Amino acid sequence: MSPINETHDVELKSWVESAHAPDADFPIQNLPFGVFRRKATHEPFRGGVAIGDQILDLVAAHKAGVFSGEAAAAAAHCTGPALNAYMAMGPGAWSALRLAVSRALREGAPHQDRLRACLVPQLQAEHALAAQIGNYTDFYASLYHATNVGQQLRPDNPLLPNYKWLPIGYHGRVSSIGVSGQMFPRPLGQTLPPGATQPSFGPCKRLDYELEVGLYIGVGSELGRRVPIGAAEEHVFGLCLLNDWSARDIQAWEYQPLGPFSAKNFASTVSPWIVTLEALAPYRLEWAHAPTDPQPLPYLDSPDTRERGAIDMQLEAWLETPKMRQDGHAPVRLSRSSLKHAYWSLFQLVAHHTVNGCNLQPGDLLGSGTQSGPTPEEAGSLLELSVGGKQPLKLANGETRTFVEDGDAVILRGWCEKPGFARVGLGECRATVLPAI
Fold first, then answer.
1. DSSP letter (8 states) at residue 185
2. 435: how many CB neighbours lie within 10 A of its CB?
3. Are residues 34 and 162 in the same domain?
């Protein structure tokens, strides 16, 4: 269990002034980890920590000798182009380095002058994936999303009988996961047009985003050994934003009998920063299934899961069209939801993933599935917001959308806030759709 400790103190101030902005995603109480280098350079990618509008270069800080003991050993594992080695060290090392960074960035810290030279403005940086992702599994953890989609496909039986008994998921494609800023062409594939008796081939016409949260595995597990629900948290390094793009028309034709394939493997986008589970400790909530629903089997149940298994994380999806960019207009918000509505806890996803002996590796990515809320405006996809394309959304500038069009950029944002604690954000997850090639 990640406890609330001195790093969460709302009174903490940093000597990095931009960390004090009221709506800053990266105050000193956050300190997420990522991989970066300066733009337009051939510098090696290396580990960094976001603070305000700056990045603390962990390689430079380590060389400057500001860390000692376990924190120094942990920082030494953040010098490569991915954070897998650091993630594999476990909660003790994660917490030690985060605490050392917190103390080094606080007002009055003794190494302040030395560390100023270790800062890189975020606007001058570019990112790579924070970890080398070996495996990617996407789940379906929102009851509201599953019901909304099911009502379109099976009006008389929207929710399949297994949904309330186990977390549903599928294994996705790692090679097409990109970091925020990703640009990808509209996918091509087979679709079955309404009324047709045979499929046609061409560009996807119903391209959709999915508002998700990604979970990075830190400590792995051995093949043949399951991770008990009570130990699942020890394997979770942190969270990011995830857009698992979907070609809905391709998906409708191909998904039976084996599920997602080419409708899902062309692109997935993650935010560059991983917010550690420790940073999210103040925003944990009770988790429970409704008393009228089946209660989880013992391997998916624990007192800690019921006490703190949910996370109150606000999630938003925004759209920026080519016309908005041309006219200098800001993106418009499509929907807002919260991770607290997830039917399955993130820790249950870890336990279920390993219950058959499947092994996890440091850097593995698990997706939460589209996070929709209980009201129509909290839907996490255009498939839901436009009711399968039957009710186009009218945007503030007069444009309409049923699905994502060429040139559109979708931006995901997420944050946690609570009285008595600082606002902690996940940054931005942005991707732009290019014409099919």
1. E
2. 10
3. no
Q: Tell me: do 115 and 203 sit in the same domain.
A: no
Tens of each residue's pLDDT in the chain, 437 residues: 678 999 999 999 999 999 999 899 999 999 999 999 999 999 999 999 999 999 999 999 999 999 999 999 999 999 999 999 999 999 999 999 999 999 999 999 998 999 999 999 999 999 999 999 999 999 999 999 999 999 998 888 899 999 999 999 999 999 999 999 999 999 999 999 999 999 999 999 999 999 999 999 999 999 999 999 999 999 999 999 999 999 999 999 999 899 999 999 999 999 999 999 999 999 999 999 999 999 999 999 999 999 999 999 999 999 999 999 999 999 999 999 999 999 999 999 999 999 999 999 999 999 999 999 999 999 999 999 999 999 999 999 999 999 999 999 999 999 999 999 999 999 999 999 999 99
Q: What is the DSSP string of 5-66?
A: -GGG-TT--BSSGGGG-TT-S--TTT--EEEEEETTS-PPPEEEEEETTEEEEHHHHHHTT-
The CA dihedral of 80, 84, 87, 88, to the nearest 10 degrees, is: -120
Q: What is the DSSP letter of 228?
A: -
Can you say whether the dihedral through the CA atoms of 161, 167, 173, 176 is positive or negative? positive
Q: Is 145 a catalytic residue?
A: yes
298 & 401 share domain: yes
Residues 97 and 144 in one domain: no
Domains held by the chain: number: 2
**Beta partners for 393?**
401
Catalytic member of 62, 77, 127, 145: 145
Decide: pTM greater than 0.90.
Answer: yes
- In angstroms, the Cα distances linking 289 to 266, 296, 308, 341, 356 are 34, 8, 13, 11, 23
- Domain span holding position 105: 6-128
Residue 1 included in any domain: no
- Structure-token match 């399955």, residue found: 344
